[in-house]
Amino acid sequence: MRYKDYVWPHNPRVYAIEYERAMGAWKVPFGRYQLQDLGPAHRVMRGEGEFVGEGAYEEFKRLATVFYADGPGLLVHPVWQTANAYFVELSLQMEPRADYVRYSFAFWEGYDGHNTGIQVTQPSAGGGAGGGGGTGAAAGTRHTVRQGETLWGIAQRYGLELTELINLNPQIKNPNLILVGEAVRVA
Is the pLDDT of residue 111 over 70? Predict the structure, then answer.
């Protein structure tokens, strides 16, 4: 699991994701109600873990330093979708020892355009007039997305960091949404 520049030495052992949909309810005359779907609310990702062995408390302090950093960051986990998230809770679950720390955490997914902090640059070669979707770009090897694939899995398959793959594909605006048949540049 990774958040911003922090990589867990091993994944936390317990995970939970809370999905919520905001609804509005208005009373209609004669005892009825009208419901309005206001869309998804923020998604909350919670978990528990432990750091074990020499330097366990030092590892927790490194995680706490990440907690205090402002703003959202890219949360990457092999089970969850990659998400632009805020680190909103970090708790010690016991009195810390030098060799064992049990903790819990929570992230809230942000719906603010999935700003990952990654600087995406357009290739300067070619200078064509078209804005998107064309297959005229000659540079690079491409992978065609198949059912069930994620950017995380594609990056692992080709030995890339997820951020590298995102930088190679500026046409992908939301890293959580890739379509079957879409061409993803991998080199």
Answer: no
